[in-house]
Design a protein that fits this description.
The chain is an alpha/beta fold. The chain contains 23 helices and ten strands. The strands form two sheets. It has a six-stranded mixed sheet, with helices on both faces. A four-stranded antiparallel sheet has the order 2-1-4-5, with helices on one face. The longest helix is centred in the N-terminal third of the chain and has 54 residues, at about 75-130.
Length: about 700
Amino acid sequence: MLALILGCIVAAASGAGWPLMSTIFGGLSNTFLSAQSSFGGDAWNNDSSTSGATMSTITSLNSSASASSGALDQISKELFLSQTIQYCLQYTYLGCGVLVAGYLQIAIWITVSERMMNKIRAKFFEAILRQDIAWFDEKQSGTLVTHLSDAMERIKEGVGDKFGLLIQYVAQFFAGFIIAFIYSWKLTLVMLSLTPLMALSGGFMGKMISSASRREQELYSVAGAIAEEVLSCIRTVIAFNGQKRESDRYENALQTGKVEGVKKSIYTGLGMGVVFLIMFSSYGLAFWYGSTLIASGEIPRGTVFTVLFSVMMGSFALGNAGPSIALIATAKGSAHAIFEIIDRVPAIDAYNRAGKKLAAPRGKIEISNVSFRYPTRPDMTVLNGVSIAAEPGETIALVGSSGCGKSTLVNLLLRYYDVTSGSIKIDGEPIKSLNLKWMRNLIAVVSQEPILFDATVEENIRFGRQNVTHAEMMKVCKMANAHDFISKLPQGYKTEVGERGTQLSGGQKQRIAIARALVRDPKILLLDEATSALDSESESIVQEALEKAAKGRTTIVIAHRLSTIRNADKIVVLAHGEVKEVGTHAELIEKKQLYFDLTYSKTGEELLSGARFWSLMFLGLGVLEAVTWFFSAWLFGVAGENVTMKMRLSVFKNVLRQDVAFFDDPRHSTGKICTRLATDAPNVKAVSVFISKHKTYIETARVVQ
């Protein structure tokens, strides 16, 4: 807070320094004009025809003023030199003060913004991890990655040195007009007559830019999601020669974002054009009215310069604040999506410390008349009146065709979702009444597709329990039939497994996942088709490890191959979200009903894949005509978007050309490539924004591909 206050003070001081120069300039002008009156005009007219013409005009005004107010003040050469030196020293002191204030302003605001962004990033990531699974069902991971990179950069631009510059410009604006009012309120009021129009145009510009920035972020988030999806599945893309198709899909998503970016530049150009049109119109009005005041002798000659330059600097500050306002408006649009997530408290809150913690949990499970609908599919009943009981240490197998609700039961046991009706209890307590974090520590899950992080084997196992000793780790790895192959790895337990475990085989990844589950010594073990993706040899090894892991624990098994659950204490057959049969393997075979048909069916289960439909249609932008500022901002905006789109697309296409070994390198992980796509191109676009602001024309070198 102290740094923010100090940053505001030095920014205001830096801004106020510019209008103060006009007071020095006005006094210096009075000194020069008095000297001309005292010493004669010949010495002032010898330098050039231009300066002579200028001073002739001033002399004419002097004559008019003299006729109205009497003779000009006389001044000696010594006094003239003394006053001139005094004003020069004042210029020097003021310049040094502005230099120090400007340095402190930028240094403080950049430091504050870096600290602020670190906190926002941490809180945003923490808020993401806090959300319930229903929220993730409606989001794409690529969109969240884009928020963490591109949107954060936009916020950083809005709260860093650009915000300090805005304070500087505001202080410069007020200081300029305060000085102008002090010296001549009449002339200042005339110049202010057009200011309301300038304020209205600036407010409209800020609102439109903020709205366009929000839409632009949303659309580029879609492109980021596509990039993350493709890069995370790069082997599949390469295997099916899908590089061209995926690059076209990415290009189409970028195109929609480009349209919104161009719209934003149009709004910026239109707003800035109107601001400068009004500003220069007020200057013309001031020159006309100021000349009449000088001629009538109402104000001294130098006062006109003081008022004119004070208002001019204040007005220019308002105009210069436009780009800063645009960046802050963009940051506001980006921050809206970020803080919407940060402020969201999920219905199932893993950070909530409330709830019971049982003293001696045993692992008894009671599922009573449970019905459930997914929040994203409220019209489809997935479970309907399901009731299952599991005593401590029992193994319960769930079988049935795809879509019958087996995995949904696992999700409900972990309380990823709350049941629509009915209840689920652990040791007689409804899971809603239990402390969520404590309850999930009782349960371990081994899924069909093992998820490993880009870390060492040891670090991946520690995700199960952070304080596990190396001896305990080796023990559970032996139980999971993983110790032998881990010992043969180049660095043993310190071996990097690669992104999502790409350096290991499917069976090896699954055994590490089993060890990670066992290291927390769970009372309840959930096995969700843990061997379905493995070959026969790997399956037998993993199945042996799973049987060891299940001993002494309440185990819920979702079976892919029915031969793996023959020894289960109880088999529950599900169909269409309902329990159809319950019994042991022998009992159900003897009944010769649904389980019998599943066991001896010639065709196995087939996994159904859902299709995602993308429909993003946006209206094209309208072509507007305005003054030079409008066209400048628009054309540079178009150029910037074209450059960033070409850069993103070229990088993306080039990445898709690489071989699989390229993606095995930790430096080329999905997250790092997506971050480069999201941040580097917008940083290049910022160059065009800088050029547009200063109206500097450059020739872009041709990029040799």
